[in-house]
Amino acid sequence: MKALVVDDEAPARAKLVRLLGDDGRFEVAGEAADGIAAVSQIEQLRPDLLLLDIQMPGLTGFEVLRAVGATACPKVIFSTAHDRYALEAFDAHAVDYLLKPYDAERFRVALDKACAQLRAGSADASLLEALLARYPGAHGRYLERLVVKCDDGWIPVPLERVRRLSAEGKHVRVFEVGGEHVIRDSLAELEARLDPERFVRVHRGDLVNLRSVVRFDSLFHGDALVELDDGTSVVVSRTHRDAFFTRWRGR
Question: Is the pTM of this model over 0.90?
Fold first, then answer.
């Protein structure tokens, strides 16, 4: 079975590689020093197990998992110096949570759990989804950025750059200052992780950033039209019109 080691500190990665080698049940398929590299290597290497730090440059560990997607994510053992994420991890039945510093015996217990789950073939994506729903952002209750894929890899997009989010099948199209991207989320799931003071639903298939709205015009049949600061327009359905207008006027 293959393992990927992800930590921004070289000594921590070296320790994990050494402990994996001493155990012998996993082959070290690769290492990554930041979240963006981790997402790329998960896609390329398809590891069975992910040994993942949480606070890292580029993307946090939680953002790495969200970018990969629950159904494509390997088994995860968190390895971190921060204990404040442990409750969310255990509530969602993560394989294990290693709090630095830990010894070889504690590491072996974590690998035992991972091996048992892998051999049993247990792969309940809803457990990981529950984890991500419980802890959506890196530093607070709501997301602060989205992780999107570009031609040259994965990048974080701060939400202040995002003007609009539109449903596109089972995915969401992100309209931001630098262009458009598609992410693997449903609009409803994403809306639950966004600050409602910043992003408001205007239609069954659209959320807009209130700070990007520059004009509001009434239409026939109770609908309305909002103009964004990039010159594009979005229809506000009559179902959402009053709530949107109240929020926009009071921002």
Answer: no
